[in-house]
Design goal:
There is one protein chain. This protein has 2 domains: 2-161, Leucine Aminopeptidase, subunit E, domain 1; 179-495, 3-Layer(aba) Sandwich (Aminopeptidase), CATH 3.40.630. The chain is 35% helix and 21% strand. The chain is of the alpha/beta class.
Amino acid sequence: MKIQVSASNPSSFGSDILIVPVFEGELAKISGLEKLQSDIKLASNKEDFNGKKGQSLVLYTQGKIGSYKLLLMGLGERKLLNNYQFRTTIAKAANSSLNLKVQKVGIFIPVVLFSTFEAKILGQAVTEAVILSTYRFKRYKSEEFHKEEREIEEVYILTSPAKISAVSEGIHLGEIFSKATIEARDLVNEPSSLVTPSFLAQRAVNIGKESEGAVKVTVYGYDEIKKMKMEAFLGVSRGSDEEPKFIVLTYKPKRATKKIVIVGKGITFDTGGLSIKSSEHMETMKMDMSGAATVLGVMQALRYLDIKVEIVGLVGACENMPSGKALKPGDILRAMNGKTIEVLNTDAEGRLTLADALSYAVKLKPDAIIELATLTGACMIALGQEIAGMWGNDKKLIDGIKEASDIVGEKVWEMPLEEEYKELIKSDVSDLKNIQTGRYGGAITAALFLAEFVGKTPWVHLDIAGPAFEEKSTPLVPRGGAGFGVRTILEYLLKE
């Protein structure tokens, strides 16, 4: 798909379909479509379309303008529009265009939108919405499927001449962000029979090669992990025949101003171990390495961006499987930082692997740690499937991540790191236990557990259990891996 910007008048621009977003009650204010005003008024009255959020209206233009069809998309009230809603609207329009099997699409950006968003942000938002909404994971589809499908080939963003440069810059950024997100989505959507710890490690190595030296990659196997005393990580991997891999990716520009470490949970398949999951809860557990996929997506994009910060990506990759060698409830593990952990539930395994990954991160003396994990069902119960929970120990870092997430349209909500709840993860026989006492506050106690391994280093924990994988297709994400967090982190890094 080729996306570019054009200063063409929407009435003369030729395409299979022209998409025009409109605010509620402002149909009469659409400039450039005067030749269709009577048709728009007639159709909108007939279909009760007035630009409300979620509404759409398709018109055949009958040759009155250059495009064959016109698709009006309701944005809702102007004062309520945010980045996420705008992206969702464009995504719905892109999906409609895909279903109509059109090949050339025009998207007109009315002047009124520039009073709500900067031109660069609009260009980026449209680009990401179009690319990511029309993404399909189809590697395993038959040839018959490929014969029947049609893809959008060209997308033109129509804007005023004064905004061309800024919108073009946004398109460029949106393409980089989208490619990185698709990298993560593909990794999550592949079956776990392919995406093993060794596969993730090899993909990291390939990212290093593709970066032409910008990203250095080191992969540690079992013996080296054992020498580093990552007993918590190795404990989780114990039940699997697949060798665990600890993956380190480093991007270090000249005159780097600071160092940021990004840590991703990398459980390539999670059965729950001996505390085994039900089949219903196990069927999507190939996605339990979504945090790792996000790390690799981010690292893949760095070579294309002018980021002045040293970035280190860390992934502890392993499977959580039941076997005669597997970790058992009641076992006690010692993490890399020396703290001991009583394992009461082997299905609370992600925090064990992260304990060692975070301990390793702290040894690098970074200015900040950003960590992502599909960690708790409790976070999904609290926030639903579309919102990631965020915990941290540094307000500036928390605010920076939230600001970045708002810009790229990924939903993040700050949650409390309640000190009093620490009592719930204290063990009678070790320093910590891997699940809390009682049923409640599980997402908070999981974050508190992780906090034990970062010390005073500025740190943010994103529990992406909900938004990492869509059980049902949404306008922006078809069913499957979402690549959640890639764009938020890249946006944050660009501001550093």
